[in-house]
Amino acid sequence: MISALLPIGIGPNLDLLELISPGLLWIAFLLSILLNISHVYEGDYRDGSLDLLILESDLPELMLISKIISFWLLIILPVIIFLPLGGIMLNMQPNDLIKIIFLIIVSSPYMILIASIGSAIAIKMNNSELLVTLLVTPFYVPILIIGTLPFVENDILDFTFFRSSLLLGAATLFTLAIIPFLVTYILRVNSE
Fold first, then answer.
1. CB neighbour list of residue 76: distance below 8 Å, 6 or more residues apart
2. Which residues are CB-contacts of 22 (< 8 A; sequence separation ≥ 6)?
3. How far apart are CA 189 and CA 192, in angstroms?
4. pTM value?
5. What tens digit of pLDDT does each residue of 124-139 get?
6. Half-sphere exposure of 1 toward its Cβ, with a 13 Å CA cutoff?
7. Could you count the other beta carbons within 10 Å of the beta carbon of residue 56?
8. What is the per-residue pLDDT across 89-100, written as a single tens digit (0 to 9) for each?
C-alpha cells in the first residue's frame, strides 16, 4: 500500500522516487512485521495451549521456531513476493531491487525473532501492538541503516552490499542462537 500511494503523493518526480525507494520498501517490510507479530502467541495463550507447550514440553524452543517459520511463510513470504511490484512502482533499478530483496530475506528472521520478544513480553495485555512497536523499534533501527547503506553509497564493486549482507547475516545467526531461549524464558515467567 505504501508503494502504491506514495508515488501519487510525491508526484511525477521519478528521480526522487528512485532515491527513497529502498528506505520505503524497508519501512513497508517492517510495518508488515509489526502489525502482525503481536498476535503470534496470543491465540495459544488465550486457550491455554501455550502453558502446556512451554511448561510440559522437553524442547519448547522448537515450538517457538516452528511458530516463527509459520509466521515467515504466512506473512513475510507474500511480502517478499510482492516486493518486485512495489519496487517497480517506486521506479527502482532491477539490480537494486534484487539487492534489497536479498537483504530483506537475510534479515527477516532477525526481525521476526526480535519482534517475538516484544510479543512474548506483552502477551497478557490487550491491544499490545503499540507496546510491541515501542519495545522492538530501537532494535530495528541499526538493521534499517545497514540495509539501506548499499543504496546510499554508490559502490562500483558492491563492497558495501557485501558488508551489509555479512552484517545482516551475522545478526540473524546471533538471534537464531539466543532469542528462542530468551522467548521461552519470558513465556515461562508470564505463564506462572
1. 32, 33, 108, 112
2. 92, 96, 100, 147, 148, 151
3. 6
4. 0.87
5. 877 777 888 888 999 9
6. 2
7. 8
8. 888 889 889 999
